[in-house]
């Protein structure tokens, strides 16, 4: 099978390598001349056999929109576009309708695995028609980890379902990371804890909180025990916000995910007006001491 891949960044570059290792022929395009296989999207489309399959792995939003627009003008009826980025599920429905006007098929696929996907494989959540998903199974099988397909790949439902599942996955990820981070801070604050990295290492096997995220946490502490080189500003990619918005829209309580998202917002404040007011109120009603401004 021969597939096109647009976007050879941190994820796409490794995905191209894993696909090739799995026996899939890949023609990749990226604006970076050091990693691209062809000079343009037009050249990529021309290099593919018909019916073509093109996997889009670029940042969500305007960049994905522009790539989908471009492919809509280059591909033929019966060709297939896969959006493997972190697009919002509502955008999938818009892109599918846009391409359907030219009889171009569309699949959305949530991809999890980060920069470790080349070595470990990727967890995949696909949305689209049964026929389109089945036509891409060789690609999905090359990308996912070894073992039973059902352990790392799911056809979630129709168009949009794959990215919806990935959105919720990332929302859960927010909550898990925040819990580990809060546990880390609590342990670091207590002087009776003399081996902080060792404490987390002891949790890696046999405990109920063991996970890959915990393994990565141990790795981070081994590389920088005090995290001295890292600022406390935490970005968010948007999917945590979308998860909270969907929780509100569906009246589903999601306090842990919501709190984790708000914690990221709080990390970006050089000075927190809200925390200042909490301190002022504690002083007003209880006479609690307030620390002077820096």
Pick out its properties.
294 residues, alpha/beta, Rossmann fold, N-(1-d-carboxylethyl)-l-norvaline Dehydrogenase, domain 2, 7-stranded mixed β-sheet, 13 helices, 7 strands
As a percent range, the share of strand residues is 5-15%
- Which CATH architecture of the largest domain is right? 3-Layer(aba) Sandwich
H-E string: EHEHEHEHEHEHHEHHHHHH
Low-confidence stretches: none
Report the major sheet.
7 strands, mixed
Record the strand order, biggest sheet. 2-1-3-4-5-6-7
By DSSP, the count of extended strands is: 7
**How is the CATH topology of the largest domain named?**
Rossmann fold
Number of helices: 13
Q: Look at the structure and give the mean pLDDT.
A: 93
Structural class designation = alpha/beta
Radius of gyration from the alpha-carbon trace, in angstroms: 23 Å
- Domain tally: 2
Overall helicity: 40-55%
Distance between the termini: 62 Å
Could you provide a short overview of the structure?
Residues 162-289 form the 6-phosphogluconate dehydrogenase C-terminal domain. With 294 residues, this protein is α/β, with parallel strands linked by helices.
């Amino acid at each position: 099978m021969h597939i096109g891949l647009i976007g050879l960044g941190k994820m796409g570059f490794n995905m191209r390598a894993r696909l090739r290792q799995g026996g899939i022929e890949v023609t990749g395009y990226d604006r970076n001349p050091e990693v691209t296989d062809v000079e343009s999207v037009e050249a990529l489309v021309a290099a593919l056999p018909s019916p073509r399959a093109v996997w889009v792995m670029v940042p969500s939003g305007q960049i994905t929109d522009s790539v989908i627009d471009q492919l809509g003008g280059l591909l033929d009826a019966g060709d297939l576009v896969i959006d493997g980025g972190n697009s919002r599920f509502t955008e999938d429905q818009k892109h599918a309708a846009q391409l359907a006007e030219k009889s171009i098929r569309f699949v959305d696929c949530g991809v999890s695995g980060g920069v470790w996907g080349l070595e470990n494989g990727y967890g995949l959540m696909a949305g689209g028609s049964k026929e389109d998903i089945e036509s891409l199974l060789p690609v999905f099988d090359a990308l996912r980890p070894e073992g039973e397909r059902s352990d790392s790949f799911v056809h979630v439902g129709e168009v949009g379902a794959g990215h919806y599942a990935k959105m919720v996955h990332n929302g859960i990820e927010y909550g898990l990371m925040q819990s580990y981070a809060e546990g880390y801070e609590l342990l670091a604050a207590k002087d009776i804890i003399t081996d902080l990295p060792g404490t987390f290492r002891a949790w890696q096997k046999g405990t109920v909180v063991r996970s890959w995220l915990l393994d990565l946490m141990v790795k981070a502490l081994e590389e920088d025990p005090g995290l001295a080189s890292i600022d406390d500003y935490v970005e968010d990619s948007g999917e945590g916000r979308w998860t909270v918005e969907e929780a509100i829209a569906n009246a589903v309580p999601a306090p842990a995910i919501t709190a984790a998202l708000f914690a990221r917002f709080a990390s970006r404040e050089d000075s927190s007006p809200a925390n200042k007011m909490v301190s002022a109120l504690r002083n007003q009603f209880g006479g609690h001491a307030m620390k002077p401004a820096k």
